[in-house]
Write a structure and sequence with these properties.
CATH class of one domain: Mainly Beta
Helix content: under 10%
Strand order of the largest sheet: 1-6-5-4
Largest sheet: 4 strands, mixed
CATH topology of one domain: Immunoglobulin-like
Distance between the termini: 61 Å
Length: 147
C-alpha cells in the first residue's frame, strides 16, 4: 500500500509556514478586551450586563454589577422561563447627556422556582436577585437500605 500526501491547493504545508504561531494573538486579545470593556465604556446603546449565578440548598442567586445605576432605573421580570434584568444609566457631561441601557436574560426553569417569592436587593452598585427553590427542586438525601 502506498501512502499519498494530499495538500489542498490553497493551503501551504506546515513545513513552509514561516509565520510565528503567536501571530494574531495580540489582536485577538485586544478584540476580547474591547468587547468586554465596552459594557461600561459609557457609550450610548444597549449593553449586556455581566452576571454571577450561584446557589445554596434553598435558593438560587443572580448577582449583577450595575455601577452608577439608580435603584428606580432597574426593572426585573420573570417571563416565560426567563429572568429579565434591565437598567439604564444616565451620564451628564458639560454639553450633553448620554443614556446607556443594560440588559440581561437568564433562563430559569419554571418548575424549580417559587415565582411569587422572588426578592431583589440593590446595594453599592450590585443587584442580587434571590430565587427560592420549590420543595420538589431542593436536593434530598436518600439513605441506602441494607438487605
Amino acid at each position: 500500500m502506498t501512502l499519498v500526501r494530499y495538500t489542498h491547493p490553497t493551503l501551504r504545508p506546515l513545513a513552509s509556514f514561516a509565520r510565528s504561531p503567536w501571530t494574531g494573538l495580540e489582536s485577538e486579545i485586544d478584540r476580547l478586551f474591547q468587547s468586554s470593556l465596552g459594557d461600561f465604556a459609557g457609550t450610548t446603546g444597549t449593553r449586556r450586563v455581566p452576571v454571577d449565578l450561584y446557589e445554596d440548598k434553598d435558593n438560587t442567586y443572580v448577582r449583577a454589577d450595575l455601577p452608577g445605576v439608580n435603584r428606580a432605573d432597574i426593572a426585573i421580570e420573570l417571563v416565560d422561563g426567563y429572568l429579565n434584568i434591565s437598567a439604564s444609566r444616565k451620564t451628564k457631561t458639560a454639553d450633553r447627556e448620554e443614556t446607556v441601557s443594560l440588559t440581561r436574560s437568564v433562563s430559569v426553569p419554571d418548575a424549580a422556582v417559587q415565582a411569587d417569592k422572588i426578592t431583589a436587593a440593590y446595594e453599592n452598585g450590585v443587584l442580587t436577585v434571590t430565587l427560592p427553590k420549590r420543595e420538589e427542586a431542593k436536593p434530598r438525601k436518600v439513605t441506602v437500605a441494607v438487605k
